């Protein structure tokens, strides 16, 4: 029976209900399924009729189930004699390395801890004659139960065919690639699992120590020896690392931290037996999710930036936002009273019985004075703005709200870059949605980390694919350098629904270049 005739809802072995397709690999299909007997989610592989390696995959799955390491994804069932051959595996709930890197590179010690755990699992598999051969950021998981999991051991290699001359070297390089990605946020072999490809030098990808400061020399050397063997002997001493066992041995002396933060969207469970020997050794202070920007961020070695010298003034002014709303209400009441009095005076001037002379200069309406107070516009949404083709379309949008939450100690930050932007892209920024077109006069910014080169762009469309459409849809209304807290007054008011705080040059912080917005406020009429 062909896999391609199977539809969601089909049941295998009168037990495993196929829910939906996750991926397809040359005639093998991976499903998310439900084990109805035990009422739990599972992953199920099925195979197209005539798939040449069905028996090899089933044998590899059975062998994988005998590896005595809980970090290896469990195999629950495998059968190549039924009308539809299948393999049933554990469905890992948690975050992949790609998910963990969505906030940027990890702290070096945590990167070392995560990948070292994976290396020990791969090494245990090699001791049983099993390999992976397809290590990628999506294959390394941090489960919601607090355990490192490596998916695809044995099965992935069998799907592609095990006949490779040096499987140990391939998996050692795969581990090096994972460590390179965890340290830098780049994948050395080109874009992979949502990660951008590493910047290239004359000899290939730059070593991790050149992309990020704070990586110890031993850790940088191990990464290069495993991931970039072509640089060994020229940029780093020592031989290439050619097996998972060698990788584990090299990592033994490197300081490392485990566990990693668990996603707050899932309930943290007790760690699974047999995983990290250090699981649970850190308190909640050091285990916050990287999406939090209040305090130290595990994703980076540098924490939240100290506020500028005017922070106290800003905090007093913005505290809760309630004082500002009260003031605006008081002004509205005063203006209403003035209109009533003016109307009464005008009415009196037309009253024949009035003894007072009419002032010929009086008018029923008055022009708005130059010093009229501007309205603070509500920001109804925001996102990190990193348009293609040089960007990846997003820039930590999940933290965009922290730039206008009335808390100057929280912030939205760009990714960490290896130069001020001049070599990588035209710019990057934060796009604010005012919900409807407004006349913008001022933008108040509170930045930290150093001097930023900033454009304020205003327009009614956020459709941007290149510099030309950026200039057309979000033209520049203000340009200059900003550090700390500054009010940017537009020489001429600009009208639009969207306000883009666009960084064209970033300050350096701990060897990385990044932009940080603690608070932003848009005012106008």
TrEMBL record:
Gene3D superfamilies: Galactose-binding domain-like (2.60.120.260), Phosphorylase Kinase, domain 1 (3.30.200.20), Transferase(Phosphotransferase) domain 1 (1.10.510.10). Signal peptide: none annotated. It comes from Nocardiopsis exhalans. It comes from the Bacteria. This is Serine/threonine protein kinase. The lineage of its organism: Bacteria, Bacillati, Actinomycetota, Actinomycetes, Streptosporangiales. InterPro entries: Galactose-bd-like_sf, Kinase-like_dom_sf. Residues 266-277, 284-295 have a biased composition (Polar residues). Residues 311-321 have a biased composition (Basic and acidic residues).
